[in-house]
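Could you please consider the sequence and fold following this short note?
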Amino acid sequence: MAEQTTSRGEIFVVDDDPAVRDTLSMVLSAGGYEVICFADGAALLAVARSRTPSCILLDVHIPGKSGLDILRELHGEDYPAPIFMISGQGDIPMAVNAIKNGALDFIEKPFRGSEIVARLNEAIGAFARRQKESASPKISSLHFPGREPLTRREREVLEQFTAGASNKEAGRTLGISPRTIEDHRANIMKKLGARNAADLIRIVMTASRAN
């Protein structure tokens, strides 16, 4: 079959369940993407290091190395495409841990096809915009001496927060769910030792003046 020239890009799907691979393949192909499926992480790593897709969907539970291991090996935080973890309901703590390791967000099973396509469209678009603009030098260059360093994504969330965006607005801008924004915010506050939102703003302002 001739390749579609109108493809929105490739999406790599990693899941050991053929039924899940088939479902995602069908849904995402209908959404205009080319889908390449892998049954385990080793197969993904072999391809993902030499070729960058538009997005990666990575199941938490895969044979051999877990999805979290693969995420770390891809250096999720610096990987040039958004990575979503696929998780069952019991895996939420694991999925939150994945976000700390650079996953953009997680998608819970069971899936709703149209929802997944909409979420991925939004995330891929937001990711591409951010790559172009790159984080505002204001927050990205701030130093918080004696504190655990913030990841790039935490700085992006902090930037949204200090600009007055709600969790919902920040999620829309960054292409991630409000719940994930909430997780990032909690992590940022813990790292910077902020007791509440006002305290967090004060810490940022102090760091801005010191730079």
